[in-house]
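Title: Comparing notes on inverse folding

I've been comparing how different people in this forum approach sequence design from structure. To keep things fair, I'm posting one structure and asking everyone to reply with a full sequence. Here's the target:
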């Protein structure tokens, strides 16, 4: 015969009333009825607990997934755009190095022209360039430059200038850093003394090299040296046959 063990438990009022109704309806003693009721209540409670856990998990899953995606986005490194450079703009200023021209076979430097002059300014060179990319290393476009000096000769304002308006090519062997430049096109020589101006037009070409130091984004500081030669197709007593000048530039370059 199975041995019965008596236990004491605390139950809620609702469970006690359910037990009393079970005893009155079936006439079963309280011991078996209590075990059956407690087992039913326990199973019902377990089911409710499981359903509640499943519901909470279903609510938490989207939030956890979103948090995981946010963390992955924060950890993932920024990808480079990979867009190639499309355009180049640059300019510079610096000393014009030994600018000179030739008249009737005689070479005259700017220094000779302004010898004994007063209020003189040393020869200055300016450059301006613009190019569109053929590929990441090569740009073609406009290359302009000029060498100029002013002063007073015998009290008369005097100005001499050589100007170039070239189609140019700029080539970067490694896409940044050092570069080479060449150009060819129209040139002019202008000498102004007081109100009188003499000018000559011709053709010229340019060779040069430089270095572009990246500062931030597409912005660069640049240094460059160029040498240009001009021919004006014959000379007279006042008009030159040819000219040339070198220049060292400190400037700015933008690549976008």
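Reply #1:
Here's my take.
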């Amino acid at each position: 015969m199975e041995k019965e063990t008596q236990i004491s438990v605390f139950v809620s009022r609702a469970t006690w009333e359910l037990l009393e109704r079970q005893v009155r309806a079936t006439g079963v003693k309280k011991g078996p009825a209590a075990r059956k009721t407690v087992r039913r209540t326990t199973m019902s409670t377990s089911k409710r607990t499981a359903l509640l856990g499943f519901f909470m998990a279903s609510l938490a899953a989207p939030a956890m997934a979103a948090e995981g995606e946010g963390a992955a986005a924060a950890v993932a490194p920024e990808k480079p755009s990979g867009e190639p450079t499309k355009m180049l703009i640059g300019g510079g200023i610096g000393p014009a190095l030994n600018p000179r021209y030739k008249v009737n076979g005689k070479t005259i430097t700017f220094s000779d022209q302004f010898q004994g002059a007063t209020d003189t300014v040393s020869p200055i060179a300016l450059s301006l360039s613009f190019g569109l990319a053929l590929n990441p290393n090569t740009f073609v476009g406009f290359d302009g430059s000029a060498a100029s000096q002013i002063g007073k000769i015998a009290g008369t304002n005097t100005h001499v200038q050589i100007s170039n308006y070239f189609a140019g090519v700029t080539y970067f062997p490694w896409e940044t850093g050092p570069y080479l430049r060449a150009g060819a096109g129209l040139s002019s020589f202008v000498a102004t003394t007081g109100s009188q101006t003499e000018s000559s037009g011709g053709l010229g070409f340019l060779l040069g090299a430089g270095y572009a130091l990246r500062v931030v984004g597409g912005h660069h500081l640049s240094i460059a040296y160029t040498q240009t030669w001009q021919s004006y197709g014959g000379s007279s007593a006042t008009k030159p046959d040819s000219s040339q000048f070198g220049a060292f530039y400190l400037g700015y370059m933008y690549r976008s």
